[in-house]
Write a structure and sequence with these properties.
12 strands; five-stranded mixed beta sheet
């Protein structure tokens, strides 16, 4: 048999004819005209080297070759349909390890709720937390990333989960938390800076101060916010940190916070995922669960768990 002469439409036509035993009924099922079905049958007879169906009164009866073909054609077409259909994901029965890239900020703000919901809906699935991706190649191996840092270039989709502002953190009895704090006093404080990518002693606060023609004193740079808390609690250092982080119960047990003495842009926590995972059923479920997880402090609210996170344009 010359496979170049065979296509799926021809196999569908033969299967419909063998199943229906009527050219008119097969035409109706396939959405074709009866002459088109008859023409297809002539072509199929040439390809298979067999009449396949012979007229007997008002019906078309299958030849032995046609009878043998029917179950095989059904199996082939079912298999092709399965391959072409999106893979499903049943959380309650699934066993899968999700790869999640996240800084410690995303971990402490989002992971507790995400893990709790996963334990209810997908008890046999697990989350492996990786460092936030530095480039599209690293992101390609993850189902999802939580990022507050600048965008990573590449074929990625993203969605802002929530916005936040920076506040000044210090140990609970620090003088900077009591009474007024004019700009000149703020600039004299020894400060700590969190730089997840260890990019140096300047960050968003320094950029905002630079636009005002001011410069602060940064004495320490650390790579994550959680290590910052015990350092502040046991020293005279202060630090700018996201308000939602400063309001965590575990953080407030050791540190207090107040507004900064100047206006500066906030930051956005984003969900980022590779375009290749856009239609993956498991990754899609994870994004939906994430949306519900952050609904208690983000807009819009969770609503229907079947509502996907709206995607941004692609980062290029």
């Amino acid at each position: 048999m010359d496979l170049k002469r065979v296509d799926l439409n021809l196999l569908r036509l033969v299967e419909a004819l063998l199943r229906e035993g009527s050219a008119s009924r097969a035409a109706k099922v396939l959405g074709l005209t009866q002459p088109a079905v008859s023409q297809g049958l002539r072509r199929a007879r040439e390809v298979f080297g067999d009449p396949l169906l012979l007229r007997h009164g008002n019906r078309l009866l299958a030849t032995p070759r046609g009878e043998a073909l029917l179950p095989e054609l059904r199996a082939i077409l079912d298999r092709v349909g399965s391959v072409l259909s999106p893979a499903g994901f049943e959380p309650a029965r699934a066993t899968r390890d999700f790869m999640l890239g996240s800084s410690d900020l995303g971990q402490v703000l989002v992971l507790p709720g995400l893990i709790a919901r996963m334990a209810q809906e997908a008890p046999n699935c697990r989350i492996k937390v990786l460092p936030p991706p530095l480039d599209a190649k690293a992101a390609a191996g993850m189902d999802l990333a939580l990022m507050g840092a600048p965008e990573t270039a590449g074929p990625l989709r993203w969605h802002v989960l929530f916005q936040d502002r920076f506040v000044l953190m210090a140990r609970r009895d620090h003088p900077a938390l009591a009474g007024p704090l004019p700009m000149e006093d703020f600039l004299l404080l020894n400060q700590a800076l969190v730089s997840p990518r260890a990019e140096g002693f300047e960050g968003p606060v320094d950029e905002a101060l630079g636009r005002l023609g001011q410069r602060r004193r940064v004495a320490l740079m650390v790579p994550n916010f959680m290590s910052l808390v015990p350092i502040l609690a046991e020293s005279d250092l202060v630090a700018a940190a996201p308000q939602r982080f400063a309001q965590l119960t575990t953080v407030m047990a050791l540190c207090g916070h107040r507004a900064l003495p100047f206006e500066m842009p906030g930051y956005a926590m984003k969900a980022v995922w590779p375009m290749a995972h856009e239609a993956d059923a498991a990754s899609l479920w994870l994004r939906r669960v994430l949306m519900c997880t952050i609904s208690n402090f983000a807009e819009p609210a969770c609503g229907d768990a079947d509502q996907d996170i709206p995607a941004s344009p692609v980062w290029q």
